[in-house]
Amino acid sequence: MGAARTSVRRRRAVPWLVLGLWIAVLALASPFASKLSDVQRDRAVDYLPASADSTQVAKIQERLPGGEATEMVVVYHRDGGLTAADRATAADQVKRIAGAHQLTGEPRGVPSRDGTTLMYPVASTEPGTDEKARDALVNDVRDIATSADGLTVDVGGEGALATDASEVYNSLDGPLLYTTAAVVALLLILIYRSPFLWLVPLAVAGIADYLSMGVAYGLNQGFGTSVSGQSSGIMTILVFGAGTDYALLLVSRYREELRRVERPYDAMAAALRGCGPAVLASSGTVAAGLLCLLAADLNSSRGMGPLGTVGVLCALVAMMTLLPAVLVLLGRRVFWPLVPRYGSTPKVRRSLFAAMGSSAGRRPLTVLAGGAVLLGALALGTLNLPGSLKQEDTFTSKPDAVAAMETLARAYPERGTQPITVITPTDRADTTLAAARDTQGVDNAERGRSGDGWTEISVIAASAPQSAGETATIEALREGLDGSYVGGPSAEQLDLKDTNARDRMIVVPLVLLSVLLILIALLRSIVAPLILVAAVVAVWGAALGIGGLVFGPVFGFEGTDPGLGLLSFVFLVALGVDYGIFLMHRMREESLKGVDPVTAALTALRTTGGVIASAGLVLAATFAVLTNMPLVPLVELGFVIAVGVLLDTFLVRTYLVTSASVALRRRVWWPGRLSKEPRPAVPPKEPEPAAASAH
């Protein structure tokens, strides 16, 4: 009797204890979570490759007198040609800018040959490395340089582009969080068909997101982990997307157990035992895949690894501790009006996934061949992907900086309009300056600041920015100027492209190996993990191919972000394997019961298909939120991942993986013990009659 009372008290105390621990954790994390935005950085150096020339230029510029320069171009334009009054207005405004701010030199106007445009390069070290001060400087210059009476004035250049990008990233946090939460809430209402149940996982996901912000800030302060607008936005997406997936799996299993077990506490314990290993392995593959980004040379990719991992692990901990505690405390009534009664049997319906399983079971090889051909055909769309994205094409709208660059490109097609920065040792500055002026493709070169043993030289190319001619000039400068670093906006884009290609060669094999090892440990098989990994790689190729078919023709994008291939691969492989784990883990459970392989595969699909579909829809919808953001790289990444998750959910998991499992039968579990045919039971020998033995 005493033991029974102790058990009842434990059932009542544990959920409250978990709730109390979470309140304490949130109280500790709260002061740090609110500071995450203060350490968010979106400078060029935060996105550049760690070892690239352009990164070294940016770092050395920070140590020069005045720190890193903010470079702008004030562009005056009139379609019919500039008048004398226009030139006077331009001169007066630039004089006011010089009077209001400490410029690195006296701005000189450069007229275009057709007489329609006049540009004034303007640079200031006034803000140093302070992003807020830089933005204030750019906006003040824009306030002074105003359009009037048909004269258009735009402020462009690297500093203005950085300010426009920073404003976009700073504006993402609120809309991204609210839109993601709204999308998840809508889908949960449709999935659960309950006026209350959807609130619980959504609230827990919000708490997990808040905790992840505090942990991310701690990583930044303790280990110097970089935090950018992109990485913090992706972290929020992962918390809600992956967290809701884990919640869907747990709640589905909990609902099953409530029909078999009387007490909610015991039903939840059984649900955690049943789906816990799959959820742990699922989060483990995502975390392992994202941590492989630490091997990337690109700062933005390397910083995204830890933050993405933090988001996934915070979601895991919240959904495996706080969510069960809250559900147990609320009891069965949280499922109203579809309350799972103890001892009841759910209505048996002919589900879509049962029908899919039947077709896959009848002709598995035909289904496999058809799916492979379809994915291969879609992957051919990658041949239609546009070239590398230029700086001015990174916005879905047209901010002032982009408008200025477009005007410059039309008015000065014969020359460069943004400087190539050369950093050289001061004792070799004169030699480097002379060599730079003699380099083919260079229009002009001027000596700049000196300090800390380095001198800055500003080079203007004879070709337009980010053209083949300017690229050749940058490469010629790097080859001819020994001991010097060549940077600037165009050099940064070139380094981004080269480094992303290098990172793919290193990170992709690491991701595949780490995910494969986790799957082998979970499934006790080599064949099944190879099938799952091959499937997600095929999905990645097909999703990228669909992107190639729509980015240019439909969305009108002028280029593809150089990091799209790597980031989409990491996310699709790590997240896509989740659903394979859910399916294969249930298949293994059924096989351990002694069920034949075909029945085990079809039962797993029938029982988990609905959950996988719901989870896939939620995850795809959360990443689809990125397609509404004003930056092309985020739109492209969100689109490819959303499409890939949908392909994975409704084609690969339901048809192809199930068909492969049916076709291979027990061989899918090779070399584990489930791959061996069970030995037929040997009937016990009947004892000989006593009379016969006596005889």
Describe the structure.
The protein starts with a helix and ends with a helix. Helix 8 packs antiparallel against helix 19. Among the domains are: 53-169, 2-Layer Sandwich (Alpha-Beta Plaits); 352-398 and 497-675, Multidrug efflux transporter AcrB transmembrane fold (Up-down Bundle). The chain is built from 21 helices and 8 strands. The chain has helices spanning 2-33, 53-63, 84-100, 131-144, 158-170, 173-192, 199-223, 229-260, 264-291, 299-330, 352-362, 364-379, 400-411, 429-438, 468-480, 489-523, 527-550, 564-592, 597-624, 632-664, 690-694, and strands at residues 70-77, 110-111, 117-124, 152-156, 420-425, 442-451, 454-461, 485-487. The model is unreliable at 690-695 (pLDDT under 50). It is an alpha+beta fold and 695 residues long. The chain has a 4-stranded antiparallel β-sheet.
Q: Architecture of the domain at 352-398 and 497-675, according to CATH?
A: Up-down Bundle
Secondary structure category: alpha+beta
Q: What low-confidence regions span 5 or more consecutive residues with pLDDT below 50?
A: 690-695
Taking the alpha carbons of the first and last residues, their distance comes to 59 Å
Mean pLDDT across the residues is 84
Quantity of strands, as a count: 8
Query: Could you describe the largest sheet, including whether it forms a barrel?
Result: 4 strands, antiparallel
